[in-house]
Design a protein that fits this description.
homodimer; alpha/beta; Isopropylmalate Dehydrogenase; 2 domains; 11-stranded mixed β-sheet; 11 strands; about 50% helix
Chain lengths: ~350, ~350
Amino acid sequence: MSLPIALDGMGGDAAPAMVVEGAAIALARDPDLRFVLFGDEARLRPLLDRHPELRAAVELVHTAEFVAADAKPSLALRQGRTSSMRLAIDAVKEGRAAAAVSAGNTGALMAMAKVVLRTLPGIDRPAICGVFPSRRRPVVILDLGANVACDAETLVQFAVMGTVFARAILGVEAPRIGLLNVGTEELKGDDVVRRAADMLRASPPPIRFGGFVEGTDLVEGSVEVVVTDGFTGNVALKIAEGVARMFRDALKETFTSSLRGKLGYLVARPALASLRERFDPRRYNGAMFLGLNGVVVKSHGGTDALGFSWAVKVAADLVRQGTNARITEEMRAVAHALAPVARAAAS
Amino acid sequence: MSLPIALDGMGGDAAPAMVVEGAAIALARDPDLRFVLFGDEARLRPLLDRHPELRAAVELVHTAEFVAADAKPSLALRQGRTSSMRLAIDAVKEGRAAAAVSAGNTGALMAMAKVVLRTLPGIDRPAICGVFPSRRRPVVILDLGANVACDAETLVQFAVMGTVFARAILGVEAPRIGLLNVGTEELKGDDVVRRAADMLRASPPPIRFGGFVEGTDLVEGSVEVVVTDGFTGNVALKIAEGVARMFRDALKETFTSSLRGKLGYLVARPALASLRERFDPRRYNGAMFLGLNGVVVKSHGGTDALGFSWAVKVAADLVRQGTNARITEEMRAVAHALAPVARAAAS
């Protein structure tokens, strides 16, 4: 069955070429995809002409407006009503597309998505969700920066969304949830995380609370889902990316700065190539906006066509798995189970 | 001039041998050091007998008690009054030692140090401070976990402590301070970081506020000092350590899993050795407890003798640079300059 996806043709450092080529890769992998592509027709048309198969699967909608990478979200929201980004989200709202994918300004995309799509029943605030290539397994982490401060109820909603996401995207039947903290003992952390832990312990399946986890656990992959507020999650993600990049660069320098280094690289090349593939950031591209009445995926702004194609795949998977209906359903069950806990806490 | 340092002989995974050997390395590097070594005499004496030069520089004080690595800080505080850790801190309080170094239980060490030594004038809460091997330069970061939640005033105090520390230990004359946030724009983050930023902007030299920084900046080394609350700082440190370890292990696997990998390693060995040295975690061992009436350094529990010797060096440097007197003095100047700001905010 054909699956229409709205694309912001103008978002991302290498847009629009990267978007068009990414869509072509995604289509070759998944021929049921269709695209509604928003952006500057004069620039997009020649790019599409290079990919006849893609051209047949694309409806091109012209707009000259786009959201700048450094635009303030509040300003983009007010002034960007005909931008390629906004039109892609509108297409989801109107049912012309089942999901939207953009590699543009994250803050603007979240602001627009919140206003246009609104949150799912039972969800107070949407979260940005990502997949982290940890040592043992891919780990789902949220929130990556949509909410700098969160109360315990919000963290529980994130846990529900993360659980449904891990089942849909990673195929884990009963993912364990870890609540990020400064230590694993029950008394660690502030009131918010301790209260969230109490609520998660009282939640019914499929919620499977694995207790507090530390930064190291995220990297080791001790659980399948890590829940935290957007401040800590954002810092965590950027540090992990930064350290990974520093090591890649240091390794590259090691293998190019001396003759022996260069020779060693040539000899060990097959092994090093598989190392590079394992940690290829493009394979983990795509931050999902969860908790909205519609699927929106944010591709990394600096990614290439291959990375963008993965973000498109994640959007398609989320739609096909009925993720949003599942989130609503599980959230209802959790809220029902937690009602006595909430009443006890309030009295 | 001789400098007496109190050592917790029983703290750390490889204690007591690691402590004694670490002290021997530190002494060989810095012959003015003297040690007051607390712990089980029956185990420490034979170890000291292997290092005649160290033996002459050590006063051994027997105690059979020690704080377990997994002991609850509150319990250790009540029941560990004659533990090797507590006696080392007492020695600083009593002036028998100029600083204490322990590789034991961090929470217990902080709890004891707070109760025994109390905070410096003008400082509400001590912080755990570390040095991070970033791309461009070593970066000072605090708090690493002593305070899960911090108000703006506390973050400003951390900035003062971090500045004095960076001058003392890294020799940077006017270190730039970055406040960790989810973005660098002035409007990002919560009220606490925004208010702390306002206060830091109004602070006199040597405080040099470089604005908000993100997780990536910590890794890149865009500033010399990064200030954050203990929750985020702890997660940041553990993620950075975790990712670094994951890469080291993946690299090792790459060079041992195939014949070409092994050969490549042999050829490139000199270059790879310098890479390993650059990121050797032992060189960055030692988390400093800043803001107390006394110098206390926490060595990583899993470190070896060489790592422990670096923690001892940091303790000696902090004493010789008169760090605590400088913190008190700078804090007085900052509080004076901020008094009008605080009055304006309160009215």
